[in-house]
């Protein structure tokens, strides 16, 4: 490394410093937070009720490669969210307030539109590459509870909504750099900000003022979370009957 | 400073960092034994040469996008400073929410400033009296007036990041990811401010401010392709008058170079209302539209 020697006493720390101190904290919170979120979801997935394993879980379904892989990845996420909110919307007896039901009905429409749009876009741009319909497994969610109480083994509706929305935001944020087509990146951006709005709203329902709390947005860097597809798919796994493989997404 | 810790931390934010060196093994081999590694790694000269080589030439036009983003963050941060200084914010939850938002905007300013500087470019600057700052609201402005401006600023910020994210495709140092991580925080802020104003968290057809220029398109005055603000000059794409940004009521999404857009209200198999279809997607703004006098440009002091 015979580069020209420089007065490094100040140079190295200067180069390192901005990418060093903040990132250290960011990474910590990113992973700490991801773990916390993942724990809630994994706990839900490990509910004692869900001890039957359908045969279909033996087959792993690849999300595909390149941009289509990213689109299928988003499609998987939106399928999960849309199915969840459809169930919330369809409850004949709900623990949510009438105002909350009104809001969630709109959120349900947004997520269904995201799902159907992605399906249409994949069929349009990559015929034959569409991910199959996924079968949700919501046995870890208690749809009679608004939020989980101490000692509950299942998530309440709002807990699950918050987990899905925050996960969605982190998923799109982490997938952006895997996208090669500007048009797809823009559409992902158009979707993720709506997910972030949902997330902020749901968070405030659970804890007023937590729309961008420190467990989700690093207080030092002001950055939201970003997670890799494989991390997200692993967390989602608790809520989907099929086993997905995101290892080739974007490659 | 622990050299190996530094490498690991860089690898977290920049997965390619090790590829930037000859290779992980080569780096370690070149360091020799543990004792020599420690001795060498403690040498600033070695560190500087290594990193200078690894990151040489990675600064690029990305810094134009970052300075553009920094301009908006400075504007927001100074706005919230003035909002808090107005003493109009009720104590308790409203004050806490605005303080949290300002904390994030300040953090974005710090992060973008240091990142731009690291890339060897002069960052846009602003203080309460110089450079990029918010033009004070007229005397007599109310809490509601400030909140309305906050909503416009946040929703504009959300649109602005979308408008230039594509320019960061392939940018080094995970700049695109960082931009996206700021973008979604702005969306959270927007949802919060909207809720404080009694509006839905997402942009919708019943918004009381839907005719504000922030939610429309086009420019009042065509701007150039270069801006000089707060001690820095950066390029922005020329305004493309043939493609004004979509209105927030838009339901035609996903057009590509090769394929037409999909109508998200009528062409998805299941029919959806135009309002739901429009609200499900936020729209972008061209940079020239953002900095136009009718939008953020008009809020600069």
List strands and helices in order, with pairings.
The complex is a heterodimer of chains A (about 250) and B (about 300).
Chain A: H1 8-45, E1 60-62, H2 66-89, H3 98-125, H4 157-175, H5 182-206, H6 229-236, E2 243-245
Parallel strand pairs in A: 1-2
Chain B: H1 3-13, H2 17-20, H3 24-31, H4 34-41, H5 44-55, H6 62-85, H7 93-118, H8 143-165, H9 175-196, E1 226-229, E2 232-235, E3 252-253, E4 262-263, H10 274-279, H11 287-290
Helix pairs in contact in B: 6-7, 6-8, 7-9, 8-9
The count of DSSP E runs of length 2 or more, i.e. the number of strands of chain A, is 2
- Structural class of the helices, strands and pairings of chain A? mainly alpha
Name given to the CATH homologous superfamily of chain A = Ferritin, core subunit, four-helix bundle
Helix content of chain A: 55-70%
Return residue spans of chain B where pLDDT drops below 50 for at least 5 consecutive residues.
1-7, 16-59
CATH fold type of chain A: Ferritin
Give the oligomeric state. Answer: heterodimer
What's the pLDDT, averaged over the residues of chain B? 85
Distance between the termini of chain A: 32 Å
Which stretches of chain A are poorly predicted, pLDDT < 50 over at least 5 residues? 1-36, 45-57
* Shape type of chain A: globular
Q: Any idea of the CATH class of chain A?
A: Mainly Alpha
Q: What is the third-level CATH name, the topology of the largest domain in chain B? A: Ferritin
> How many distinct helices of chain B?
11
- Biggest interface between chains: A-B, 81 and 87 residues
Spatially, the strands of the biggest sheet of chain B line up as 1-2
For the record, what is the CATH homologous superfamily label of the largest domain in chain B?
Ferritin, core subunit, four-helix bundle
Assign the structural class of chain B, choosing from mainly alpha, mainly beta, alpha/beta, alpha+beta, or little secondary structure. Answer: mainly alpha
The sequence of SSEs of chain B as H and E is: HHHHHHHHHEEEEHH
Work out the strand percent of chain B: under 5%
């Amino acid at each position: 490394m015979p580069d020209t020697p420089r007065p490094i006493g100040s140079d190295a720390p200067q180069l390192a410093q901005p990418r060093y101190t903040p990132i250290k904290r960011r990474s910590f919170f990113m992973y700490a937070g991801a773990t916390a979120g993942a724990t809630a979801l994994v706990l839900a997935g490990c509910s004692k009720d869900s001890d039957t394993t359908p045969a279909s879980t033996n087959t792993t379904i690849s999300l595909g490669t390149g941009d289509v892989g990213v689109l299928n990845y988003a499609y998987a996420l939106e399928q999960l969210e849309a199915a969840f909110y459809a169930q919330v919307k369809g409850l004949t007896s709900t623990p949510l307030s009438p105002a909350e039901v009104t809001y969630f009905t709109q959120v349900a429409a947004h997520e269904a539109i995201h799902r159907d749009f992605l399906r249409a876009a994949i069929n349009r741009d990559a015929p034959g590459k569409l991910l199959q319909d996924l079968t949700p497994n919501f046995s870890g969610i208690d749809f009679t509870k608004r939020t989980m109480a101490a000692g509950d083994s299942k998530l309440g509706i709002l807990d699950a909504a918050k987990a899905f929305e925050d996960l969605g935001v982190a998923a799109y944020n982490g997938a952006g750099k895997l996208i090669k087509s500007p048009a797809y990146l823009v559409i992902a951006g158009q979707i993720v900000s709506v997910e972030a709005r949902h997330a902020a709203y749901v968070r405030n329902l659970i804890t007023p003022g937590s729309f961008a709390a420190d467990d989700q947005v690093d207080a030092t860097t002001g950055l939201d979370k970003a997670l890799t597809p494989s991390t997200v798919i692993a967390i989602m796994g608790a809520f989907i009957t099929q086993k997905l493989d995101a290892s080739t997404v974007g490659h | 400073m622990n050299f190996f810790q530094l490498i690991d931390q860089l690898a977290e934010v920049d997965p390619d960092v090790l590829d930037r060196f000859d290779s992980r093994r080569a780096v370690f081999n070149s360091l020799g034994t543990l004792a020599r590694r420690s001795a060498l790694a403690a040498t600033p000269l070695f560190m500087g040469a290594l990193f200078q080589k690894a990151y040489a030439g990675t600064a690029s036009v990305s810094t134009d996008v970052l300075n553009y983003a920094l301009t908006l963050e400075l504007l927001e941060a100074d706005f919230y400073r003035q909002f808090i200084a107005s003493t109009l914010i009720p104590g308790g939850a409203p004050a806490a929410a605005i303080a949290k938002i300002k904390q994030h905007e300040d953090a974005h300013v710090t992060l973008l400033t240091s990142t731009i500087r690291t890339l060897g470019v002069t960052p846009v600057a602003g203080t309460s009296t110089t450079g990029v700052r918010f033009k004070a609201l007229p005397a007599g402005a109310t809490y509601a007036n400030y909140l309305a401006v906050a909503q416009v600023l946040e929703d504009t910020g959300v649109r602005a990041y979308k408008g230039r994210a594509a320019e960061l495709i392939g940018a080094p140092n995970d700049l695109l990811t960082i931009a996206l991580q700021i973008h979604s925080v702005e969306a959270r802020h927007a949802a919060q401010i909207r809720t404080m104003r009694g509006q839905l968290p997402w942009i919708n057809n019943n918004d009381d401010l839907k005719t504000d220029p922030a939610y429309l398109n086009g420019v009042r005055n065509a701007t150039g392709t270069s801006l000089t603000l707060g001690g820095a000059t950066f390029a922005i794409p020329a305004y493309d008058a043939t493609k004004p940004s979509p209105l927030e009521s838009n339901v035609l999404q996903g057009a590509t170079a090769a394929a037409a857009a999909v109508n998200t209200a009528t062409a998805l198999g299941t029919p959806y209302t135009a309002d739901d279809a429009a609200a499900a997607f936020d729209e972008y703004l061209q940079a020239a539209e953002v900095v136009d006098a009718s939008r953020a440009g008009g809020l600069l002091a």
